[in-house]
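Dear support,

Our group has been running a series of protein-ligand predictions, and this particular one with 2-deoxy-2-fluoro-alpha-D-galactopyranose is the one our PI (initials K.S.) wants archived with full inputs and outputs. We had some confusion internally about which version of the output was final, so please treat the block below as the authoritative record. The input we submitted was:
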Amino acid sequence: MSEGVWAAPGRVNLIGEHTDYNDGFVMPFALPHTTVASAARRDDGVLRLHSADVPGGAVELRVHDLAPGRGPGGWTGYPAGVMWALRDAGHAVGGADFHYESTVPAGAGLSSSAALEVVTALALSDLYELGLERGRMARLCQRAENVYVGAPTGIMDQTASACCTAGHALHLDTRDLSQRQIPFDLAALGLELLVVDTRVKHAHSEGEYGKRRAGCEAGAAALGVSALRDVLYADLPAALSRLDDPEVRALVRHVVTENHRVKRVIALLEAGEVDAIGPVLTEGHVSLRDDFRVSCPELDLVVEASLSAGALGARMTGGGFGGSAIVLTHTSTSTTLKKSLLDAFAPTPYAEPRIFPATPSPGARRVS
Ligand code: GAF
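Confirmed final output from the archive:
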């Protein structure tokens, strides 16, 4: 018997990529796609997890036994990690039944795991009357992912799923965790943001993510700052001249210019010059491709084909090595653009991409 139903969305990131573990700026918005959980408390200390989207039956775990390194692998590690993180932080949470159904494409770089974590945390917070504040909820979900699942990700995805609001992009300062909701209503301006899921996830992406993060930390240490956020855009040439390792230099250049791009996008949005953000998005892609080296041929093809077909701007979104790109276009030309993209992929060995428009949607909420 369910005691309630909760939903948490996936996200796309408009700009500010690989900055969230450098104390930098990000600007995600929530997708209409959600992971929905119906849940109920149990008094026998068992966490029962079932997904309509994954073959196989339910998994049952004893909440007392949950510990990093001892968890189940696969998708159940995320909700189990949330249960562990809540209890480890001293919250009085007991057993629970969860049934999940998701429309967030899995493995597409659209934060299906953050949606799963956040919907679990929100349901447990309500069921056990924890009253968790949303920012704290996001931090606990990040801890589940970092410590329990073992993925060294930043705070962006969980904050996006927990804190985004409809019609806005979320400007998050990942150092002090302050937030601003920036109005981002494209439809009213005759614009559309397409998500293009390449349906590819390259092997070793987790290991490569960790390497980029370590490279950024090495850059910060070499420059004597606590995080790359502290390198000002105006000081970038001087900072780069102090770095010997060309790979670290390129990582630093990406992070510093990307933080600057977030500020430029906010200034343009606030000035009402929304279509002018297109070239800034594309610059971000070039930086992720050439300096941060997290793109892949499929994502590069989406960007090139979109720009050739008249898009205002395009870039990969999320961690990279496959996953999705975003494309900013006039609504009047979006149908021809979609066709051009499919035509560009048709003669290649790549899978046909899945293309859909993204409307800034609400963050996590109780449905019933
Ligand atoms: C992944 C991570 F989970 C985020 O924390 C962020 O670093 C992103 O890659 C890159 O911007 O989604």
